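queue> holo job accepted (uridine-5'-diphosphate)
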Amino acid sequence: MKITIIAGARPNFIKIAPIINAIKKKQNEGFEISFRLVHTGQHYDKNLSDTFFEELNIPQPDVNLDVKSGTQSEQTAAIMIAFERELVVHPCDLVLVVGDVNSTMACAIVAKKCHTKVAHVEAGIRSGDLSMPEEINRMLTDSITDYFFTTSTSASDNLLKLGCNPENVHFVGNVMIDTLLQNLNRISVPDFWNEHQLSEKNYIILTLHRPANVDEVSSLVALLQGIDTLVQDKKILFPIHPRTQAILSENQTNFKNIIFVLPQGYLNFIYLIKNSFAVITDSGGISEETTLLGIPCFTMRNNTERPETETIGTNTIVGTSLENLRERFTAFLQNGPKKAGIPELWDGKASERIISILVDKK
Ligand code: UDP
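queue> job finished
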């Protein structure tokens, strides 16, 4: 079986690493399975791309479509045009897409129109919030996917309610958690740890990059000013996404507690999360990692497509207002962290399950 794997953005690289490891394992067991890795070039900044290939031992992509930035439509169209050319020259049995970025949707559409089967890893999750491009990408990708791999039974249920064939909906666990568990013994302390006087639990990690939080510079600054004074005796470490950096650089504000650092490589970032007091974020993937690591997480969004991070895990959805964040954070400081567990099958073996199922489908 010839699989073309698509990756375009930071969270994709983290998700494909264990899938590639699982394919290599099957090859060593004598199965006829090979892969071609396509990087669409959606993320091209070294800190969001190359670093992850190096740290997670992902092989160099066979091709980079080099699409770079653009509006939603420009980027989606550029990926489709470039990937169609690629697929014509290098046909395969299956295109495997992960997550919910533009590359996921664009390559799924191209594959399907070229009569190639599509597998979607992290299928079926839904926030119901169509103002987010990711939700549109999820819905469209799942509407043409052949093999669905889900992280939760609720994601599988969403697909079954849509009429997907139950034989093709597979609850396998979470590939992002595979990466986390495969690398926990490799995480490393960042160079700036002493310089910023960081120590276990004396800081909060902050990440923000979603348009609702960062696109309007004055509300972003107001939000950061509020977060700056949220807790008396904790530093706020903010690995700032290039998107947020570009917007903030228009406004030179000084903060008392917020320490700005570049986006971190995976091994440093997980070290920082694991030793933090709490995390404030608008990322979906990070709320899964904090759940596994048992770190309190406050999500600055009105909804989540990963409900188990809140119902089972450590996540609290606080909305996008500073008042709500203050209220929920104060309750946490007074009452301590909520009791949390780890969702079913988040055991580090999702990728192996996926590849075993695909090999059997042939
Ligand atoms: N991440 C990282 N360095 C950072 C911030 C995030 O390695 O400075 C990792 C994080 O551990 C998680 C992933 O990037 O695995 C999440 O990516 P992002 O927040 O961009 O995407 P989302 O999960 O919101 O789709």
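queue> The chain has a mean pLDDT of 96.
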